[in-house]
Amino acid sequence: MLVGITALLQPLAAQEVAFQSGEKISYTVFYNVIGLYVNAGSATFSALQKNGGPESVYHLVGEGVTNSRYDWIFKVRDRYESYYDLENQRPVKFIRNVQEGDYRKYEEVTFDHDNKVAVSSKGKVKLPHHVQDVISSIYYARNIDFSRMKPGDKVPFSMYLDNEVYNMYIRFVGYEKVKTRYGTFRAIKIKPLLLKGQTFNGGEDMSIWVSDDANRIPVRIESPISVGTIKVDLMHYKNLKHPLSSLVALR
């Protein structure tokens, strides 16, 4: 069943969104290829209100790196940036600078929502009414009202990547307790539709457990990748907008 995106994801007032300026969340990435998980890398997400521009624009950054001792297997140095209009909950600019093994990609995109086009060095792409980029979609999804959903419901959205617009969705699975390297959480389990790429296989292979509180931050992610599987656990956080009330017990 497709849940009406207009009802669930309509733009919220800035004071109602799940995050605030100064929030930073850090994760450890564990890799398993022979039955044993090893600490293979780290990921961070940060949100900071942009100075010198509209108060509603936030600079969102997501970074992922492999530990240097594993770079000989598969080196990752990824950085995604989104300048996000909080009032309308949509990106105005997107920067992608990634290195994944031998694959390298840099792109810079401006979203002209008045004329409904994305502009990059590759030209212009027509946009639907409401579109996200790779990093803004994470923050956008944190404002979904899962309490109004039933297991199996999907929330659709559009995402821009590589000069194309994709029809994506997030599937609501249900509520679970999940034990992570940080602690045990009451969590909301979801499955996003992934695009096939250098690392991920695509489809609904990834599972994400989101804190069942007003922050709705990912506390664990599990997914197969091109070789092996990964597990990503929350390790540190600062300046959350709301108490992390979903934390049942520290490890």
UniProtKB/TrEMBL annotation:
Q: Which InterPro entries does the protein's record reference?
A: DUF3108
Q: State the Pfam families in the record.
A: DUF3108
**Domain of life assignment:** Bacteria
* Name assigned to this protein: DUF3108 domain-containing protein
Organism of this sequence: Cnuella takakiae
**Lineage, highest ranks first:** Bacteria, Pseudomonadati, Bacteroidota, Chitinophagia, Chitinophagales
